[in-house]
Amino acid sequence: MTALTPKTEAELAEIVASANAPMRITGGGTRPIGKPCDGPVLSTSALSGIELYEPGALTLVARTGTPVSEVEKTLAKEGQRLAFEPMDHRGLLGTTGEPTIGGVFAANVSGPRRIQTGAARDFLLGVRFVDGTGQVLRNGGRVMKNVTGYDLVKLMAGSYGTLGVMTEVALKVLPKSRHTGMLALTGLSDTDAVRALSRALASPYEVTGGAHLQNGPDGAPLTVIRIEGFENSIAYRADELQKLLGAFGTATFETDADRTTQRWREIRDVAMFHDAPGDVWRISVKPSDAPGLVAQVPGAEALYDWGGGLIWLRVPEGTQADTIRNAMQATPGHATLIRGAAGAGAFQPLSPAIGALHDGLRAKFDPKGLFNPGLMDRAA
What we know:
- This protein is of the alpha+beta class.
- The chain has three domains: about 10-175, 2-Layer Sandwich (Uridine Diphospho-n-acetylenolpyruvylglucosamine Reductase, domain 3), CATH 3.30.465.10; about 180-270, 2-Layer Sandwich (Alpha-Beta Plaits), CATH 3.30.70; about 270-345, Alpha-Beta Plaits.
- It is about 25% helix and about 25% strand.
- The protein is built from twelve helices and 17 strands.
- The radius of gyration is 21 Å and the shape is globular.
């Protein structure tokens, strides 16, 4: 079936206004998460281009089909970056195409630096989108009055295209760090690794990444801590962190920019699972709960990010969603199937109260049920 690829916001609005059957909303098509609907594809990939960039104001406005690579290249020329470090899902999911800036915000894709700077949604200043009636709405950014009564910026981030089709995003950017350093500890148990990461993150030494790989590049457990900034500051903080973490062993200090960048790109993109068979879950919990949860899942392998608050869990192919949900019954948090075939069980079930609110928002913004129906259905 040929995809619908409107080139203008007006064309997109016309398509939606005249539609009477469900559509599958996509950007670059690199994150097929959840249960897709059977309708035609409506892609925002042709809505591309940076419309405004003010380096001095740390703001950028782009159409949602703009490739992330184009945004990053533009920012790099001015020594700036997307501070929330969005993941590239292509290696993990085996997809092709180009990740788009709209897709990043639609899925609220946030990488290792989230522990310091915040999530993608925290950098989203404004949105323009087409609702399920074909009406163009806008909120935030240069339009500060919210006439709908909803914080549409926060609603759209992480909605996976189920509330509306975003056409433009305004976002905050930050300067790149001048230097990067990385501390590494080897051989720690999951529990000790999370304790070490928690101690580092609770310190005043401005840690911007904390992760633990059960199986590092040489097969041994690897725990890594990232610090960024001026060279002298990094050296001082690394020395203090080595003292702070002395009870967990001797931490080596890496300052080579290429090796450090590569290591954190691999963590960001969960490279350790790219060519490994099995289903992959993304689980968010309190860090201290993470090792115990992983231990309850048979045959699991884990990458802990965000100091243990984010678990990337690889399990045998075909593992039932109930296996993960049951393990989490006594653990507050949520789990999403990123790679696998759990169908409607991919997203975390909602409580009755939150579910009713979710359904009410869907009815308000998409009364005809056009946008990705069933994608985020929660029944396992």
